[in-house]
Specification:
The chain is of the alpha+beta class. It has 8 helices and 17 strands. It binds guanosine-5'-diphosphate.
Length: 310
């Protein structure tokens, strides 16, 4: 078990404030470490904007809250291209459902929430934009509850924690009538509510590739979760395709996420999310596994990109 990590997906209808919320969390990242001055730790806005210019909302962002690294996994906002939402949710152990305090749940809220339930995630509800004058948090909470019931939430899921937030102003609070000055209540809720990742660093290696990326220097990059075992840079592996056929390969470099950047590391243990280079022809849904004791994970659904209607 990796107690120093939480993997949380962020799900929302478009424009309900995912990007702004992650920005606010990033700006306060590291803020709450031992007695440091608040201002010192806040990422310079220009610096953040410069990084964002390149990444927009990065698909993977990591935020430090004390000793804990919170991996934040973005989900597609508009439409689901070939089951991408389902795939990326597989990297997470919990979800932040962001809902606009005025608009309430919208079609994409329903769509992503259904997918989160199918993936057995328990969402934390974030009612955002509490600063807008026409915010109606009480009704919106009722609408969210109705939606949970309608989508068949189980007993655990229906008991969801709620936070009221203004991502724009950088605060979250458990009490709709009292604002806090920071995002601390949201960080605390993530630590408390999102299960620590399961997985055994000494078990046979299993890395499920859920996303592909490309970089002109590094070539094809596979992003996924180390489900079990420990992945080491340069190690020989077996790659299992979606039909369960095995082929030998060698890992290049490994990167983990930190803020909006990626950081090269020598090994990544079960529970964390990794970007792997050096494996040509790596595909979504494949498992990177141990060369001596290959143990492929069940293949995940991959479809040709289609725009789903909902
Ligand atoms: P996304 O599509 O979910 O990533 O949404 P964005 O984070 O891009 O936000 C969409 C719009 O809502 C932007 O104009 C934001 O500035 C605005 N917004 C986001 N959070 C808040 C908030 O807490 N209060 C207010 N008033 N506006 C917000």
């Amino acid at each position: 078990m990796n107690t120093g990590i939480r993997n949380v997906a962020i799900i929302a209808h478009v424009d309900h404030g995912k990007t702004t919320l992650v920005d606010a969390m990033l700006r306060q990242s590291g803020l709450f470490r031992a007695n440091q001055q608040l201002e010192e730790r806040i990422l310079d806005r220009d610096e953040l904007e410069r990084e964002r210019g390149i990444t927009i909302l990065a698909k993977n962002t990591a935020i430090l809250y004390g000793p804990v690294k919170i991996n934040i996994i973005d989900t597609p906002g508009h439409a689901d291209f070939g089951g991408e939402v389902e795939r990326v949710l597989r990297m997470a152990d919990g979800a932040l459902l962001v809902v606009d305090a005025f608009e309430g749940p919208m079609p994409q809220t329903r769509f992503v929430l259904r997918k989160a339930f199918e993936t057995h995630l328990k969402p934390i509800v974030v009612i955002n934009k509490m600063d807008v004058p026409n915010a109606r948090p009480k009704e919106v909470l009722d609408e969210v509850l109705d939606l949970f019931i309608e989508l068949g939430a189980d007993e655990q899921q229906i008991d969801f924690p709620v936070l009221y937030a203004s991502a724009r102003q950088g605060w979250a609070s458990a009490d709709p009538a009292a604002r806090s000055g920071t995002m601390r209540p949201l960080f605390e809720a993530i630590l408390e509510e999102v299960p620590t990742p399961s997985g055994d660093p000494s078990a046979p290696l299993q890395v499920l590739v859920t996303t592909l990326d490309y970089n002109e220097y590094l070539g094809r990059i596979g992003i996924g979760r180390v489900v079990n075992g420990t992945l080491r840079a340069g190690q020989p592996v077996m790659v299992s395709d979606r039909q369960g056929r095995l082929r030998p390969a060698k890992v290049g470099t490994l990167l983990t996420f930190l803020g909006l950047k990626r950081e090269e590391v020598t090994e990544v243990q079960a529970g964390d999310i990794v970007a792997v280079t050096g494996i040509e022809a790596l595909e979504i849904g494949e498992t990177i596994t141990d060369p001596e004791r290959p143990s492929p994970l069940p293949p995940i659904r991959v479809e040709a990109p289609t725009i789903s209607m909902y």
